[in-house]
Amino acid sequence: MQRVLIAMGDIKLAHSVFAMPFAILGAFLVAPGEHGQIVWASLAKNLVLVVVCMVLARNWAMLFNRIADAKIDAQNPRTARRAFASGALSPRDGYFMLALNAIGFVIVCSLFGFLFGNWWPVVLAVPVLVWIAFYSLTKRFTWLCHIFLGGALAISPIAAAIATDPDQLAHTPGVFWIASMVLCWVAGFDVIYALQDLEYDQSIGLRSMPARFGWRGALWVSRLLHLLAIGFLILALRTSQSLGIIFALAIGITAVLLVWEHTLLIRRGKEGIPMAFFTLNGVVSIVIGAAGCAEIILAAGHA
After folding, report:
1. What domain count does the chain have?
2. Residue 157's domain is classified under what CATH number?
3. Domain encompassing residue 160
4. Nearest to residue 212, comparing CAs of 134, 137, 139, 265?
5. pLDDT band at 161, cuts 50/70/90?
6. pLDDT tens across 221-256, in order?
7. Contact at 8 Å (CB) between 214 and 196?
8. Residue 277 pLDDT
9. What are the C-alpha distances in Å from 190 to residues 98, 250, 299?
């Protein structure tokens, strides 16, 4: 149990806040169905499985990241105390926990088939695990690694929608615009996070946008990605009949938060990264997820 607690502390379960609200929103976007009604008994069970899958998938991806990067992390003063880098956990411990989370993920995905007759989650389970782990390898060969991380989190609303109602997904373009927003938003703040390791990455030849373009260039890339994220939110609003004024207000709040994030970096430099990376982006995900779900519930209530 002690080793599990060490691992959970190392992979920061609280960072699930970045993707979880968007997965739940993806499920809600397809939940009303053709007649605009939500079958709450079914959706509640579905959401429990979605949340469990999200936790298991994230555990898998982060454990894979820590194991794959153990030697790299051990040489970096900022990451040397991580569990696998410091030796607090052995590779054997990591492989065991990786296997448990992967098996658990596949089992929970299969429950969508047994409970709802939807076998797509279990069919796609292994490809999803491969995709979300692949990001950890990309910084070895491309400075587009941040885009790959964005893509890993961007599948969360799509996967949740497939798990909830795969037939309705084709008629819900808003899910794909939300996924596009997540890709750009996550890639943008991951560029900010990577600024902490700019000199280290350059010294050992790791690829990242800060290592490739420098501090100022990377910040401009991050700003562009976040501008695109706002654009995709607007497209989600315009293409989703169940989203309206509440979601529009959430977009406005998100824009303000992202401007604040970049202002912090201009004023405080590296010292502003912790608040810019975690606090403000955690608020962004909660605001968008909560606003979207609330509006869908209200719209379904009037259908």
Report:
1. 1
2. 1.10.357.140
3. 2-301
4. 139
5. very high
6. 999 999 999 999 999 999 998 899 999 999 999 999
7. no
8. 77
9. 24, 22, 34
What are 117-128's pLDDT values in tens digits?
A: 999 999 999 999
Q: Which of 233, 226, 231 is nearest to 186 (CA)?
A: 226
pLDDT, the chain, mean: 94
Residue range 22-69, pLDDT digits in tens: 999 999 999 986 667 888 999 999 999 999 999 999 999 999 999 999
The rounded distance, in Å, linking the Cα atoms of 185 and 231 is 11
Tokens for 112, please give them.
């969508």
